[in-house]
Every structure is written in C-alpha cells, then in structure tokens.
Design brief:
The protein is mainly alpha-helical and 314 residues long. It contains 15 helices and 2 strands. It has a two-stranded antiparallel sheet. The radius of gyration is 19 Å and the shape is globular.
C-alpha cells in the first residue's frame, strides 16, 4: 500500500471528529435558525482561516517531535511590521510581503538552529522567542496602527459564493503540505525524525538541517497568517497573536497527531479546525461566555492528550 494511501486513509480518530462535527452542527441547527444560513457558514470559514494556517505549521513541527510556541509573539510582531510597510499601493504591498515572509523564515530558522545545534528544548526556545517578539511588537506600537491597501483588505473579505477566498487558499495550502509530507523525501525525514530521532541520525538523515528547515517552514506559514489577519483587521495589532501559541496545538492533538511526533497528518488537523470553529460558533449563538469557551478548549486538550497517551501505553 502506498504512503499516500496510508496517510490519507480514514483513521478512527478522523471518524470520531467527523461524528462530533455532525453532532455540533445538529446542535447549532436546533439552537438557532441563523446557524445554517449561507452567511453564517461563510462567517465560520472566515473565522477559521488564521487558526487553520497556524495549526498547519504546528502540525509539521509536532510531527517532527518538536513544538512551536513562538506564534503568539511572532504573529503580533509580523502583523505590526506588515501594517507599517504595506502602504496603499501594489508595490509597497509586495515589498511588505517579501519583508514579512523573510522575517518569518528567519525567526523559524533561529528557533530551529537553537534547538538543533545548541540543544535547548524547543518548548523553551520558542517560548523565549515569543516573549522577545511580543515585546518588540509593543516597542513598535502599543495600539493598533498602520494600514493595508484597500484592495488587499477587500480580498481578505472576498468570497466565491459562500466560500471565502481565504478558505480557498487554506484548502490549497493543506493539499500542498499534505503532498509534501506524504510524497517527498523532506516529508519522509519529518516523520522519521519524529518517530525516532536517534535512529534517523544513525541512518544518515541530516537531522539538524531538517529541523532548521521545519521551523523555517513554520515561520513562513506564521508570516502568511499574520498578513491575512492584518488584512482582516485593516491595521497591525501588537496583540494579534495572543493565545495562538496554545490554540495552534489544540487542533493538532484533537486531530490525532501525537505530541511525541512521528504519527498523524494534516487531514486530522483540518477536521479538528472545523470542529473547533463550529463549536465556538454554536456557543456564541447559545450566548455562552468566551471564558467558558476557553475552559472547554482546555478540557478538550487534556482529554485528547490523555486518550492518545492511553493508547500509546496499551
């Protein structure tokens, strides 16, 4: 059986998440007549785009046995820089995109280099990076500032029927990363390092260089998410990334990717992002406080990790 077939074949966890999506959708339909309207379905997709991109980055890192907690600070810093440089013309927008993508890649490479060559645990490395970048964002500005061209803002709000342009981009992005993971040597190295880093090194795989590339890709995707969020806000918010460090982990774990690495993929993450976005939307219709939503998300994380830890021991 080919690697692609094994990787895309429905796993039990995927079926569970699909069942939960159906249950949440049913609850939403019974709780409000507005839930299943085209407008609300489009709004749910809009709300999941940024999380879907960041969760995709986190999936790649966790598959390799690492973790990336730099998103909170990185998203805030990159959003502020992007809004400061984007201006109001296509030329300034392209220049801002190039700068932000380059910065995102550099941030990721620094995370990867410290982890691979210095030997600092990725949790500590990326948490430290996040703190530095969050402080840098607040040094630049303590309130939302800057701007983006109106046509870029319109693009982030544009839709093909009930499907936002952002969601079309996310689908293409997930397909591209899925292909990379399942059909390229780089993807094979990611799974091999996550499964057994020592064995991967003994077999001759360039473990350290691969780690740097993994975190660089994570930084690139973080930059893409920051640009999208800035387009939606219309300004650069120095607190744009608050909460995304832990929020990015939830869909990955719920989707069946093991925290230890080496097992999982983008399909489970995609399904879990849909589930979490629908759940938040339903709770909003039911007038449930966002504080309770945070509690629910924390319970989901603990339950998912406990479940997979139990399976690993059995």
């Amino acid at each position: 059986m080919s690697t692609l077939v094994r990787a895309t074949r429905a796993q039990p966890v995927h079926l569970v998440v699909l069942a939960l999506i159906g249950l949440v959708f049913f609850i939403g339909m019974t709780s409000s007549d507005r839930f299943a309207t085209p407008l609300n379905i489009a709004n749910v997709q809009d709300q999941m785009v940024a999380l879907a991109i960041v969760a995709l980055a986190q999936t790649i890192v966790i598959l390799s046995g690492g973790i990336d907690l730099s998103f909170a600070g990185a998203l805030s810093f990159l959003a502020v820089v992007f809004a400061a440089l984007a201006g109001d013309t296509a030329g300034t927008l392209l220049m801002a995109m190039a700068v932000v993508i380059t910065l995102g890649i550099i941030i990721g490479m620094i995370n990867g280099a410290i982890t691979a060559y210095v030997g600092v645990h990725p949790l500590i490395t990326t948490l430290g990076t996040s703190t530095i970048l969050a402080g840098a964002a607040l040094l630049i500005t303590r309130q939302p500032t800057g701007s983006v061209p109106l046509f870029f803002e319109d693009f982030t709000y544009g839709r093909l029927g009930v499907v936002p342009y952002g969601m079309v981009f996310v689908i293409l992005l997930y397909l591209a990363i899925g292909f990379m993971l399942w059909r390229t040597p780089f993807g094979t190295r990611i799974y091999a390092i996550g499964d057994n880093e020592a064995a991967a090194a003994v077999s001759g795989l360039p473990v350290k260089h691969t780690k740097i590339a993994i975190y660089a890709l994570s930084g690139l995707l973080c930059a893409v998410a920051a640009m999208y969020m800035t387009g939606r806000f219309g300004v650069g918010d120095p607190r744009a990334g608050v909460g995304f460090d832990l929020r990015s982990i939830t869909p990955v774990i719920v989707g069946g990717t093991l925290l230890a690495g080496g097992k999982g993929g983008v399909l489970g993450t995609a399904l879990a992002v849909i589930l979490l976005a629908l759940l938040a939307n339903v709770l909003n219709f039911m007038n449930v406080s966002s504080f309770y939503q945070w509690i629910a998300e924390g319970v989901i994380i603990i339950a998912a990790v406990s479940f997979f830890a139990g399976k690993a021991k059995s």
